[in-house]
Amino acid sequence: MTSAPAEQRVQAGDGHVFTLLAAHAAAPRARLLWLPALGVAARHYLPFAETLAAEGVDVHLHEWRGNGSSTLRAGRGSDWGYRALLEQDLPASLDAIDAAATPLPLLIGGHSLGGQLACCLAGQHPRRFAALWLVASGTPYWRSFPAPLRYALPLVYRFLPWLARRQGVLHGRRLGFGGNEARGLIHDWARVGLLDRYAAQGMPQDLDADMAACHAPLRGVVLDADWMAPASSLRRLAARMGTSDVSITRLDAAALGTRADHFSWMKQPGAVARALLEDSDTAGSDAKKKFHKSD
Fold it and tell me: 3-state SS of 127-195?
C-alpha cells in the first residue's frame, strides 16, 4: 500500500496559491520537479511519482494555474500566459523544494506542454538541473509533424487563439483538447506552433537563446501511437537545448502494457519510469555522477 502524498501549500509572488504534491523515497538519491500536460491536474501523476519514489527519486508534482488545486480559473476576467508560469508559479515551486535544503541532484521534467516549459525553465537556470526528463513531449511547430497532420496544424494554431479571444477562454474540455485554458496561454502555445519560436508575451527574455545555453543531459520517452508528440517533434525540441547528451526511448503497447498513446501511460507508468531511470543510470556523463553522488 502506498502512503498518502505529501502536500505543501505554495503561494506565487502575485498571490496565486496551489498545492505542491510529493511522493518521497525512503532513501532518496535525487529530486524531480514534474510539470503536467496542458489541462491535467497534478494528482493524475501520482502513480508515476510513486513508481519513481520506489526507485529512490523524490518527485514533486507542480500544479498549473487554472487546474486542480489552483485557486484560479481561466475566464474573461482571469487571463495569463507563459510569463506567469515562468516568472511566478514555477519559481514558487522551486523555492518550496529548495526550502527542504536537501543536498541532492535536482531534475526537471514534464509531459507534453510540461516538457516544453521544463526546457524553458532549464534555460533560465542553466546550471541548476542535473538532467531533463521528457515524456510524450515535443515542440508543437507544425513542420516537425509528419504529413498529413502537418498541413492541418497551421489552421489549428490560428483558430484556437481566435476562439479563445472570442469566448474569453478556450473551452478545451468541450473540444477534447486540454481543460478550460486561458487565452494568453493558448496564444503563446500557438505562436510556437506557427513560428517555431519560444516566447512569452510581455516577457523580454529570449527563451530560445536561454535554452541553447543549457547543457543538462536530456532523456526522452516517445509513445509509439502518440500522434500528439511524435518522435520528430521531440527531436526538434531537444535540438533547441545546448546539450549533445540526448537519449530518446520509444515504447510500444507491448512494453507499456497499455495503449501507447499520449495519456494511457499515466495509469501504468512502470515502463516509462524504468526507461528514464535506465537511461540516466547508463549515461556516461557528469550528470550520472551527480545523480549517484549520495549512493
Answer: CCCCEEEEECCCCCCHHHCCCCHHHHHHHHHHHHHHHHHHHCCEEHHHHCCCCEECHHHHHHHHHHHHH
Angle at 285 between CA 283 and CA 288, to 5 degrees: 65
Residue pLDDT, tens place only, 270-282: 999 999 999 776 5
What's this model's pTM, rounded to 2 decimal places?
Answer: 0.94
All residues at 6 or more sequence positions from 53 whose CB lies less than 8 Å from its CB, including other chains: 23, 24, 25, 59
Please tell me the CATH superfamily of domain 6-147+204-291, with its number.
Alpha/Beta hydrolase fold, catalytic domain (3.40.50.1820)
Which parts of the chain have pLDDT scores under 70? 1-2, 101, 281-295
End-to-end CA distance of the chain: 26
